[in-house]
Design goal:
about 375 residues; alpha/beta; Aspartate Aminotransferase, domain 2; 2 domains; seven-stranded mixed sheet
């Protein structure tokens, strides 16, 4: 049955379940790792129960139902048509980033990224003995943008890949069609493969800023395009481990698959049934989730601007992860300050490219979020009063 009117105000008890988010730093209230504090949709839980009831958990391959649901999802949600042969089923996204680097780079080649960005982007080039080129985003009063001039100055004949995060983690940007097309032109001009991590693509919070997938780029560009997607962030099933790549060009797909070697594990048998159910029956739940997250986002932004104005934020259109500038707070480590003084554990901005920022996970019940924000405000108020 379709999901409707899920109660997102319930905070499940997660301690004692092996939760990284809640048990790695048990002395603090967690608002860090990209893992929501909501139960997954009933359709996913029921699909898992049915698969568990079968009782046999041998090696598994992508089954017909999963393939059909993924292809239908691409068509209905993103308006793009794909074929079964275009899909590469994977047990994780970071692994896929590493695979792409190993498939397309020789030692001494280069991979370009734009920071601040999801921290594995900084690390995966080393898996191929490739060098990292980081061209940071620029920012104005409202948002963060590509620094096109700096990118042109930084790219070299040894650059092979540009890794994109769209929607952007941690910045919350949903890049426009014009920006993605300009990025494609840049890649075409410099003979780069565009590796587009679109794991947050179903978590757009603004109706007037829809996700523009690089899969919509012209057919001529597909020879240099690898798309990565997953239901994991949207439906809170990251711990099950399923993602997929869409690689339309046969030669590019062959290179990608050839890099697997003996490093890619089998996909969890349960994960593929959870993914099928999420894509097939989870859309009503997802719509309710977006509405709830939008309310949390708006309340968080209002609270910070009015109650903790020493912290600075930019517009936020996607994901449940808010990037917060703590520069004016003037502490050596914002994440340690809020842990020690507020009892709140956030994501440290340092591995993402900025020690002055923290990332706040607002994918949680509203009252729980407000308790965390109130604790942060009290800690900041005490610090400012002591100056």
């Amino acid at each position: 049955m379709p999901e409707t009117n899920f109660n997102f105000d319930v905070l499940p008890e997660r301690r004692g379940t092996g939760s990284i988010k809640w048990e790695r730093f048990p002395e603090y209230t967690p608002f860090w790792v990209a893992d929501m504090d909501f139960a997954s949709p009933d359709c996913v839980v029921e699909a898992l129960h049915r698969r568990v009831d079968h009782g046999v958990f041998g090696y598994a391959a992508a089954h017909t139902g999963l393939i059909e649901s993924v292809l239908d999802y691409l068509s209905t949600m993103h308006g793009v048509e794909a074929d079964e042969k275009d899909l590469v089923h994977l047990p994780g996204m970071v692994l896929a980033l590493s695979l792409a680097c190993r498939a397309l780079c020789e030692p001494g080649d280069q991979v370009m990224i734009n920071s601040p960005v999801y921290y594995p982007f900084f690390k995966v080039p080393a898996d191929a003995e490739a060098e990292l080129i980081d061209v940071p985003f620029t920012r104005d009063e409202t948002t963060w943008r590509f620094d096109w001039d700096a990118m042109e100055a930084a790219v070299t004949p040894r650059t092979r890949i540009l890794i994109l995060c769209n929607p952007q983690n941690p910045l919350g940007r949903a890049f426009s069609e014009e920006e993605i097309q300009q990025l494609a032109d840049f890649c075409e001009r410099h003979d780069l493969v565009l590796l587009s991590d679109e794991i947050h693509c179903d978590l757009i919070l603004e109706d007037d800023q829809p996700h523009y997938s690089a899969l919509k780029l012209p057919e001529s560009f597909q020879k240099r395009l690898i798309i990565l997607m997953a239901p994991s962030k949207t439906y809170n099933i990251a711990g099950l481990g399923y993602s997929f790549a869409v690689i339309r060009d046969p030669e590019l797909r062959r290179k990608f698959n050839s890099a697997r070697g003996c490093t890619v594990p089998e996909i969890n048998a349960l994960a593929m049934y959870a993914a099928e159910a999420a894509y097939r029956d989870g859309e009503p739940w997802r719509r309710d989730l977006i509405e709830y997250l939008r309310g949390n986002r708006d309340l968080l932004a209002e609270f910070i601007r009015n109650e903790i104005p020493v912290l600075k934020i930019h517009e936020h259109a996607a994901t449940y992860l808010y990037w917060i500038d703590c520069t004016e707070l003037d502490v050596s480590s914002p994440v340690q300050f809020f842990a020690q003084e507020a009892g709140v554990f956030l994501t440290d901005g340092t591995p993402f490219g900025s020690s002055r920022h923290v990332r706040f996970n607002f994918g949680c019940p509203r009252e729980h979020m407000l308790e965390g924000l109130q604790a942060m405000k009290a800690a900041v108020d005490r610090k400012l009063a002591s100056i």
